[in-house]
Amino acid sequence: MTDWQTRLRQLPVEEWAMLLDASSGLPGPRANTALAAAFAVVADESALLVLGTRDDEFTAMCVATAYGARADEAEYAAAALHAASDGRWRVREGVAIGLQLLGDRDFARLTEIVTAWAESDDPLVQRAAVAAICEPRLLHSPASAAVAVGVCGRATELLARRPLTERREADLRTLRQALGYGWSVAIAADPAPGLAAFLALDPSDVDVAWIIAENRKKKRLSVLL
């Protein structure tokens, strides 16, 4: 149990909002992701109902993290999917963090979710899939690395199919940014098949070329090339 989990458990739910406000790390460059992860573990359904009505960004991030962590349940999977398209990037990041927590205990369910989300028409949902699965601690076997490579590959393929006139949109740029590092994480987990998929990407597409170039800059990949 983490210190943040202990502190949350020691307080009545009615006082959690004060703790979140005081310890969020906001305003500032980094939100308290450790607290968000602890919230996802400790919060029960009643806590989510109470705090889910608050509009501040950090509380919304914590609630989204809890949704992602519990996405093996249909109700929370739907809530996580909705939060993945939230206009606030920290809320979207909360979904990815939560899905990674889910992956720690049920990688098969995480695989189902990210594989489905990679097919979404919404680039922010695709981005959540990439961000969730491209986490080194989850990619501890060739099979898990293959999931990450598959998600990156499918999201890249669908991005390249979009008309060039759409690709300046902010949500698509957000997806592209995630793919700009996600490939390197996936490849590093199992280099041979990952590199084969990466080197097969079509650099004649301007956005695919950007994704290739950005990943090549990452040390975890550059040492393999």
Structure description:
By secondary structure, this protein is mainly alpha-helical. It has 2 domains: 1-105, no CATH class; 109-120 and 128-225, no CATH class. 71% of the residues lie in helices and 0% in strands. It has helices at residues 3-10, 16-23, 33-42, 45-51, 57-69, 74-83, 89-105, 107-117, 123-133, 142-161, 170-189, 191-199, 206-216, 219-222. Helix 1 crosses helix 3, helix 3 (33-42) crosses helix 7 (89-105) and helix 7 (89-105) packs antiparallel against helix 8 (107-117). The longest helix has 20 residues, at 142-161. The mean pLDDT is 98.
Question: What key phrases describe this protein's structure?
Answer:
single chain; 225 residues; mainly alpha; 14 helices; 71% helix
Q: Which helices and strands occur, and which strands form pairs?
A:
Layout: H1 3-10, H2 16-23, H3 33-42, H4 45-51, H5 57-69, H6 74-83, H7 89-105, H8 107-117, H9 123-133, H10 142-161, H11 170-189, H12 191-199, H13 206-216, H14 219-222
Helix pairs in contact: 1-3, 3-5, 3-7, 5-6, 5-7, 7-8, 7-9, 8-9, 8-10, 9-10, 9-11, 10-11, 10-12, 11-12, 11-13
Taking the sheet with the most strands, its summary is: none
Stretches where pLDDT falls below 50 for ≥5 residues? none
Element order: H for helix, E for strand: HHHHHHHHHHHHHH
Strand content: under 5%
Main structural class: mainly alpha
Question: What's the number of domains?
Answer: 2
Helix content: over 70%
What is the overall number of helices?
14
Tell me the overall shape.
Answer: globular
Cα distance, first to last residue?
Answer: 40 Å
Q: How many E strands? A: 0
Arithmetic mean pLDDT: 98
Q: Rounded to an integer, what's the Rg over CA atoms?
A: 18 Å
